[in-house]
Amino acid sequence: MTKAKIIIIPGSTRQGSVTTQLGKAIAKSLEDNGAEANVISLADFDMPIYDGDLEQETGVPENAVKLAKLIDEHQGVVLVNPEYNSSLTPLLKNTLDWLSRDVGTKPYQNRAFALAACSPGMLGGVRVLSHARDILVSIGADTITPQIAVGGAGSAFNDDLSLKNERAASLLQSLSTTLIERAKTHL
Ligand SMILES: Cc1cc2nc3c(=O)[nH]c(=O)nc-3n(C[C@H](O)[C@H](O)[C@H](O)COP(=O)(O)O)c2cc1C
Q: Per residue in 38-80, pLDDT tens?
């Protein structure tokens, strides 16, 4: 049977990023539930800050087209958010903005989206989730309801990348199975 392909996009490129660690944990959970999962780094898709004049003069950045093409090979997308002042990182917001321009394909259509957040703080970045969801809804992306915010990130993971907290582990399982099911409708 064909596996659903899910791309995982952490909103931080920092060495030792807790967001990337959650991205890897999500990938493992998706794979355990029968999907193919690919964690990318936005460091490989460097883009200038969106500017209308720049877009008019030189078009969208090559890396926006490259990332859109890669997303197009997947039926599911997980945006894994750090939380900066209760909202998205400029890195992820800028990437989402460029992807909403004329990148040759339609990265927000014909696939399922899920949201996750991670923070060393106790709230786990839960406030960024509603900001990110608003963006996806306004873009018209098919976004699943289950989401996860992992707090106390420094000590939240076991060595095998499973989550120590039972409720968080159960939320991750729900996110994974719902996303795979929805992604399969886009195969
Ligand atoms: C500008 C800035 C704003 C931040 N705001 C928040 C916040 O609102 N909530 C929170 O939980 N952590 C906040 N943090 C702390 C981040 O959660 C922490 O730096 C985290 O490690 C970033 O994710 P990363 O490890 O994946 O890079 C902020 C950090 C920075 C640099």
A: 999 999 999 999 999 999 999 999 999 999 999 999 999 999 9
In terms of DSSP H, where are the helices of 75-157? 90-99, 126-139
User: pTM (2 decimals)?
Assistant: 0.98
Give the model's pLDDT for residue 1: 77
Nearest residue by C-alpha to atom 17 in ligand 1: 119
Among 15, 86, 119, the mutation site with the greatest number of ligand 1 atoms within 8 A of its Cβ is 119
Q: Does ligand 1 have an atom closer than 6 angstroms to the CB of 14?
A: yes
| pLDDT < 70 stretches in the chain | none
Give me the phi and psi of 26, to 5 degrees please.
-65, -40
Q: Which residue, by CA, sits nearest to atom 4 of ligand 1? A: 84
Nearest CA to ligand 1 atom 22: 82
Burial class (CB in 10 A: 0-12, 13-18, 19+), 145: exposed
Using the atom order of ligand 1, give the atom closest to the CA of residue 16.
Answer: 25
